[in-house]
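Pilot study result, target chain (106 residues):
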Amino acid sequence: MDIREAQQRMAEIARVKGFNQADIPRQFCYMSGEVAEAFDAWNKGEPKEHLAHELADIFNNVARVASMTGIDLQSAVEEKQAIVAERVYERGPGAGMVKRGREMGE
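Predicted structure:
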């Protein structure tokens, strides 16, 4: 299954189950809750299966928001990965890497 198929499947599941198809702000709240649950699972050293399910919940929420807003997530991911692959990163003042310059829309 590719991203586009997963997005379509999640949209169909949401429709069949009667999930709200218009409340985008609420969906973002659900998504942030799933991110917190994934972090909590990782932080507590939960089994990988638990973390995997939480990450899948995040993906499914992203797929729903993409469907609700008419975004082709497959194309968006492919485009963004191409942009990231071309970026130049440098060591930041802290421990992480930061991108040099900023592209439009990032």
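One observation from the pilot: Helices lie at 3-17, 24-43, 48-68, 73-86. A full batch analysis is planned for the follow-on phase.
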